[in-house]
Amino acid sequence: MFKYILGIDPSLRNFGVNVRDNVNNLVYTDVIRTRNGMNDHDSVDFIVEQFFERLEPYLIKINGRPATVVYVEHIIFAQKGKGTARAEAIGAVKWNLRQDGFPIYGVDPKSINSFLSDRFGVKFPRNSKDIKETTRRIVHRHCGHYTLDDNEADAIAASLYGYAHCIEKQRLSPIALSRMI
């Protein structure tokens, strides 16, 4: 069983990360911000360095097996010309995590929104700006964490999705129960 669920909302300027434990407590949340005017390659290097520095306490192994599972929101929307560097940043993070054996799941933003809608009974609007506001509202109202940052809210939503996918399903699965006995 996993000890931590890590949610990531990748962005080149505001890279959201969130960690929750296996009983659904919010353990750590942060946004790795790059400086205005920083070129894309320096931003990628900075994000990768800061990611592993800040999250080192949560990227652990127990008895040689990874104790953290990672859920990454897929990149769908990108400003023109920024998609490549953004993909490079998340690619470098994922590559390093895979080298250490951490399981990584990519999640479509629409799947996360559908999960939040079902879980909390909130209908999502069609407009992308309103979707971001709705996600922030859900995170504030139902998770008790106030944020003005879209990336932080999306990272929290990704870790919530990960918790439901990884932990709750394991608790209900007869196969998982039979392995524990």
Summarize the structure.
By secondary structure, the protein is α/β, with parallel strands linked by helices. It is 50% helix and 20% strand.
- Strand order in the sheet with the most strands: 3-2-1-6-7
Report the count of strand segments. 7
- Poorly predicted regions are 172-181
Q: Rg to the nearest angstrom?
A: 16 Å
Secondary-structure-based class equals alpha/beta
- What's the end-to-end separation, in Å? 13 Å
Helical segment count = 6
* Percent of residues in helices: 40-55%
Average of pLDDT: 86
Please summarize the sheet with the most strands.
5 strands, mixed
What is the topology?
Elements: E1 4-9, E2 14-21, E3 26-33, H1 40-55, E4 61-62, E5 65-66, E6 68-73, H2 83-99, E7 104-107, H3 109-120, H4 128-143, H5 150-172, H6 174-180
Parallel strand pairs: 1-6, 6-7
Antiparallel strand pairs: 1-2, 2-3, 4-5
Helix pairs in contact: 1-2, 4-5
Descriptive report:
The protein is 50% helix and 20% strand. It is globular. Strands 3-2-1-6-7 form a five-stranded mixed sheet. The two termini are 13 Å apart. It has 181 residues and is of the alpha/beta class.
Give structural attributes.
181 residues, 6 helices, globular, alpha/beta, single chain, disordered C terminus
